Amino acid sequence: MEETINNYDDILLMLDSFIREPAGFWNEFYRNREKAIPFFVNKPDENLAAYFEQEWIRPGKVLELGCGPGRNAVYFAKNGCSVDAVDLSEVSLQWAAERAEQEKVAVNFIQSNLFELVVDRGKYDIIYDSGCFHHIAPHRKITYLNLVHHALKPGGHFALSCFEAGGPLGGVEMSDWEVYRERSIKGGLGYTDEKLRTIFKDFEVVEIRKMKEETEDSTLFGVNGLLTSLFQKNK
């Protein structure tokens, strides 16, 4: 690649090269399925199940950002949704496809860089992100927000689970400028209720809370250290 800056996109690509983990990193991360990674379990997020139970969201067209091994994508499909699930890692998507086949549900898995994803305006009723946003460097937040705004229908819902600032899972507390001084997000950026409200200020807040911790024998995934949030786009 020619290392020349001719436009705004070239600046973003340069900053990506300093901060962002490449596809190879995530392929290796998912290759060993026996690793003691909490979200490798085949269970949906407890907050996602609660959204359906409380009828805050209903079956519709879903886009999942950073779907990993597909546990939430499969849950959406089992609950009558039409699902497009995106991840950078081919290895994670292979695992996710196996899970969908085992559950006998149809999910459209898409291998793509999130910021190269092309979708129709207002295509989705629900956009879901469990664990992707806290790996996004500050210079890509605007791109991320533009994607969500573009893809979500008026009145649609956007749900997010991310590291709690200073929580037991990491959730490093750094200023945006400090990320670039350190040239690292140190495993994942941490967020607070206030910070999420500021970033997603153009959405109506339905709920922001800590994820509920679930027991090992629960059918749902829930760990201490994540914040869950549900937003609605203005109609």
CATH A-level architecture: 3-Layer(aba) Sandwich
Q: Categorize the overall geometry.
A: globular
Residue share in helix: 25-40%
Terminus-to-terminus distance: 42 Å
Count of distinct strands: 7
**Mean of residue pLDDT?**
94
> Which structural class matches the secondary elements?
alpha/beta
Q: Low-confidence stretches at least 5 residues in length (pLDDT < 50)?
A: none
Briefly, what CATH class? Alpha Beta
Main sheet: strands, sense, barrel: 7 strands, mixed
**CA radius of gyration:** 17 Å
Q: What is the CATH superfamily? A: Vaccinia Virus protein VP39
- Elements, N to C (H/E): HHHEHEHEEHEHHEE
Strand order of the largest sheet: 3-2-1-4-5-7-6
Tally of DSSP helical segments: 8
Tell me the CATH topology. Answer: Rossmann fold
Number of domains: 1
What share of the residues does DSSP label as strand, in percent? Answer: 15-25%
Name the features.
single chain; 7-stranded mixed sheet; Rossmann fold; 7 strands; about 240 residues
Structure description:
With 235 residues, the protein is α/β, with parallel strands linked by helices. Helix content is 32%, strand content 21%. It has helices at 8-19, 23-31, 46-53, 71-78, 90-103, 141-151, 176-182, 193-199; strands spanning 61-65, 82-87, 108-111, 124-130, 152-163, 203-210, 226-233. The chain has a seven-stranded mixed sheet with strand order 3-2-1-4-5-7-6, with helices on both faces. Helix 4 (71-78) links the parallel strand 1 (61-65) and strand 2 (82-87). The radius of gyration is 17 Å and the shape is globular. GO terms for molecular function: methyltransferase activity. Pfam families: Methyltransf_25 (PF13649). Keywords: Methyltransferase, S-adenosyl-L-methionine, Transferase.
